Amino acid sequence: MDDLVLLVLVFLRLGLVAFGGSTGVLPELERQVVDEYGWLTRQQFVDSFALGQLTPGPALLMVMVAGFNVAGTAGAVLSLVAIFLPSAVMTAAVTARWEWLRRRPWLASVQRALAAVAFGLTAAGAYSILRLAVSDTVSALIAAGAGLVLWVWRPHPALVILAGGVVAGLAGALQG
Fold first, then answer.
1. What are the tens digits of pLDDT across the range 56-111?
2. Residue 22 has what pLDDT?
3. Short-list 40, 36, 34, 26, CA closest to 76
4. What does the CA dihedral 79, 85, 86, 92 come to, rounded to 10 degrees?
5. Residue 56: exposed, middle, or buried by beta-carbon count in 10 A (0-12, 13-18, 19+)?
6. What pLDDT sits at residue 19?
7. At what angle do helices 157-175 and 42-54 cross, to 10 degrees?
8. What phi-psi label fits residue 156: left (phi over 0), alpha (psi between -120 and 50 degrees) or beta?
9. In angstroms, rounded to a whole number, what is the distance separating the alpha carbons of residues 176 and 155?
10. DSSP 45-57
11. Which residues neighbour 151 within 8 Å (Cβ) at sequence distance 6 or greater?
């Protein structure tokens, strides 16, 4: 199968389950792009996740890195379109029928169920990125410190990511 076609099919499928935020789809995204197809190494995946968190806009912009690795600029653009197309279509469909849907008695049950699913997917995604990113004592200390800083002071996450990168760079320089 052509690389671009495979890329689009994989990201369309992932886009169908990418609700609850980008963290919810991370375990399957990692499985597909790292383990199944080898489009990214584990470190590239972690780095693309961090980059996605730092850039303005949705964090799933990270898929452009895998797309670029596979097929250059065309791969990056098609990956981006493919990951967001399913949710855009579903949003348009629900929006068009919202007045009818919001009066259905079962809607509250569906919303509660989807909230639970989104929470579970987000927890799995957080575990997945933690498992990938924390590989030694230094990274464990950085992750624990970042978690503490986020919990206590609640700064913008981009600042914490940048600070973590600086600390990791300094630690690497001291070790090397």
1. 888 899 999 999 999 999 999 999 999 999 999 998 998 999 999 889 999 999 99
2. 80
3. 40
4. 170
5. exposed
6. 65
7. 140
8. beta
9. 31
10. HHHHHHHHHHSSS
11. none
The token pair at 98 is 């919202």
**CB proximity list for 155: less than 8 A, separation 6 or greater:** 149
Residue with tokens 């990511």: 161
Could you tell me if 5 and 74 are in contact, meaning their C-beta atoms sit under 8 angstroms apart? no
The contacts of residue 76 (CB under 8 Å, 6+ apart) are 64, 65, 67, 68
Domain ranges of the chain: 3-133
| Cβ within 8 Å of residue 75, ≥6 positions away | 3, 4, 7, 66, 67, 68, 69
pTM of the model: 0.79
